[in-house]
Amino acid sequence: MPTTAVRSAPPRRGAAGATAAALLAATLVTFLGASAAPTPLYALYQEAWGMASSTTTVVFGVYALGLLASLLVVGRLSDHVGRRPVLLGAIVLEIVSVAVFLVAGDLTALIAARVLQGLATGAATAVIGAALLDVVPATGPIITGAAPVAGMGLGALGSGALVQFAPAPMRLVYVVLIVLLLVEAVGVARMAETAERRPGAVASLRPTVSVPAQARRAMLVAAPIDIAVWALGGFLMSLGPALTTQVTGSHAPMAGGATVFALTGAGALAIVGLRTVPALRVMLIGAPTLAAGIVVLLAGAQFGSAVLFFAGAVVSGVGWGAGFQGALRTVVPLAGPNERAGLMSAFYVLSYLALCLPAIAAGVATDRFGLTAVTDVYGAALIVLAALAMAGTLAMSRARTAAAAGRAD
């Protein structure tokens, strides 16, 4: 690295900025779509390789752990070496991971592919979020919030459709993803750089996790809903296809993908639709909506009603999008400019541990107690978390109102 900063091309605005933002958004959708693409295939892997439910959730969980590690280590690297090199490296690593999926013939290869995919996605998520703020500062945060959620839904649904209706069900989806990634790599290579090169690249690889004193109360209030929404996502993206089969009686791969799409599609719409609503109010919408959706989803699972089950997934998805967005917007603005990286790292640690660890525990428990019983207990725990978030958010809202009234006096 040079010892002096080298100024790059200035951020683009207008049509050029919109084009760059579209490319970045499409790439983010592809990465997160690829992360959900194996979901409809888990039943085929289980049948072909004799995998248990606990193994399925481990395969899902190692992806989240790889993603978290990558976010913490390379999350700030593009601030020093530029956006394009980091994003191109992430795309190359993602192509390698998808190629391993393509040729995978056993569980070991599947786990290796998921670890590589997690590492690539973590790097891409961090750099694309920063690049979107460079080219479209006003809408960048909205795209960063909605595109990953939409990508997961489209990836699961599209993968399910290819598995069910196209030839080579365990291979074709990965060929499609490699083609998309290669096209996007060409676009990124031609994209103008928007960040300055500056020293400190090696130091930026040191993970920084901290919650500033002024943000700790908000983090404590936001934690239950953040844990609940990501734990629900982890459950449905790992055990969702098996649960959907149990409820609907259909073994069609697209059915499992439809469950994830219902959750994440509704979540993406909620993120966009509530973008101008105050953060605390968004959390007050998200917590009860999530709880209500889980109740309906559990009812569908208990009574074998596909209508209730998918309706519950949609309502839960609205709560998921609102809860996550509200939690993020409640906590992050409380950090100073030099505290944001550490706080975001702490938030990501919480989110991605919630995504993988409860799902792994649920998979292990399913082998012993059965999927229905585990679903009931899991759902009840998430409802309790949503209730805690509701109570904490109401208390914080009252405290802020009282403080504002005191200042007015």
Automatic annotation (TrEMBL):
It is found in: Cell membrane. Pfam families: MFS_1. Its main location: membrane. Residues 19-409 form the Major facilitator superfamily (MFS) profile domain. It is a multi-pass membrane protein. The chain crosses the membrane at residues 52-74, 86-105, 111-133, 145-166, 172-189, 218-240, 252-272, 279-300, 306-324, 345-365, 377-397. It comes from Nocardiopsis endophytica. PROSITE patterns: MFS, SUGAR_TRANSPORT_1. The keyword ATP-binding does not apply. Keywords: Cell membrane, Membrane, Transmembrane, Transmembrane helix, Transport. This is MFS transporter.
